[in-house]
Amino acid sequence: MTVTTGAPQAPATEAPGALNPLDDARSQLREATTILGYDDGVYNVLATPRREVTVGIPLRRDNGDIELLIGHRVQHNVSRGPAKGGLRYSPDVTLDEVRALAMWMTWKCALLDVPYGGAKGGVRIDPRQYSTAELERVTRRYTSEISPLIGPAHDIPAPDVGTDENTMAWLMDTYSVQKGHTVLGVTTGKPVSLGGSLGRATATSRGVVHVALAAMRSRDITIDGSTAAVQGFGKVGSHAARFLFDEGVRVVAVSDQYGAVANATGLDVPALEDHVAATGSVVGFPGGVEISGADLLESDVDLLVPAAVEGVITGANAHKIRAKVVVEGANGPTTPEADLVLGDAGRLVVPDILANAGGVIVSYFEWVQANQAYWWRADEVESRLAERMLTAWDEVAAHAAKLNLPLRTAATCLAVERVAQAAQLRGLYP
Ligand code: NAD
């Protein structure tokens, strides 16, 4: 037997000079607290996670080797309810990234008025290099290590990059075994046959498309025949591309981590889905030509949907972005520096905490259904999702217009104010 470390492990923070999403998240918070007139005490409380844990996850590989993986769970804030946030499996996971993602979850839940605080989890692992049985062992051990922190009333994980409904089924089962009875409400994004909600798997993308259409209409763009580029063809990007296609939008370029494809007259998205199902990537799709990932971001389109990872639109490339509207399917794709450039160029950026909130809305519906053991019809889920997304869009757009702020600043101010108000009403203990 050999003992190895499967991925670069400690230190769990970014290298100096690297893009750090926590810096971005804190800079957005600083701007909001300044506009709201809050003092440094409030800023410091909101800039710092309430609770965080780092765990070592020993994994027995299929060949008998032992590997040590590192995982994190961060609860940023619980003033408005139990912590809520995804679980990410990626070789790029760092503690600062998880902290940033947890903070954005707090703002997202407050903005959409779902009764949660914010959390996030991550394991530093490249899931493509591990078998299903190995990923199950990682998930069960990680769950076991963080189980004192999670639960339907404490912290409710969900899928994110590199995890899916199977991961949530293992997580729910491991937690339930420890409790001695089935606890469906400990996670969301479960398989529908195991207490998941109808509509959850596509909810983030549905929400992205609801606000994308509203944002394009606000800029007098005719939807039918308009053009879009989508970065990332995973759980969020693939369904977003499909729903845009169904609305008559020409999806002229899509990408994944392996490459990008384009077709100026519009990609045949259903055929592309079949290609990805068969090959695992958009690369090689016969109905398009190969382009670079940079070309995709810089496409001359009405709508750009970054739906992959954070920090892809930066000070270095923001001036090359030609999309009229950018709708953030991913969390944190645009840095604060890039926001300034895009704003000056008249681009409309619909921020992540609004644009991709459809996932947490239907996660909330799933949790309500699981806790009540009473299941909703698909049309009930879809109509309630649409209503919440469009109400939030109207609210943020009106607030931005009233205060003459970019949408992100307006959305962050609304969310931070709600969280600060809840904290103030509850008071400090002791
Ligand atoms: P996923 O793992 O299902 O898919 C990620 C996709 O991005 C894959 O197609 C991958 O190949 C691609 N990708 C990775 N790096 C890339 C790069 N540099 N360029 C182009 N493509 C790249 O993950 P997901 O669940 O779709 O999440 C995507 C983003 O959406 C993340 O930022 C996540 O936090 C956010 N998000 C997800 C949900 C959800 O419900 N899944 C909800 C809200 C926000």
Task: Please give a structural write-up.
This protein is α/β, with parallel strands linked by helices. Among the domains are: 52-186, 3-Layer(aba) Sandwich (Rossmann fold), CATH 3.40.50; 203-355, NAD(P)-binding Rossmann-like Domain (Rossmann fold), CATH 3.40.50. Helices cover 44% and strands 17% of the residues. The protein is built from 14 helices and 13 strands. It has helices spanning 21-36, 40-47, 95-111, 132-146, 165-179, 203-218, 235-246, 269-279, 293-297, 336-344, 352-355, 358-372, 378-403, 407-426, and strands at 3-5, 51-60, 66-77, 83-90, 117-124, 155-159, 227-231, 250-256, 259-262, 289-291, 303-306, 325-327, 348-350. A 7-stranded mixed β-sheet has the order 10-9-8-7-11-12-13, with helices on both faces. Strands 1, 2, 3, 4, 5 and 6 form a 6-stranded mixed β-sheet that branches. The longest helix has 26 residues, at 378-403. The protein is globular. Mean pLDDT is 95; it is low at 1-16. The chain binds nicotinamide-adenine-dinucleotide. Residues 159-162, 204, 231-237, 255-257, 293, 307-309, 329-331, 356, 359 line the site of nicotinamide-adenine-dinucleotide (NAD).
Note the main attributes of this structure.
NAD, Rossmann fold, alpha/beta, Glu/Leu/Phe/Val/Trp_DH_C, oxidoreductase, 430 residues, binds nicotinamide-adenine-dinucleotide, nucleotide binding, disordered N terminus, 13 strands, Glu/Leu/Phe/Val_DH_AS
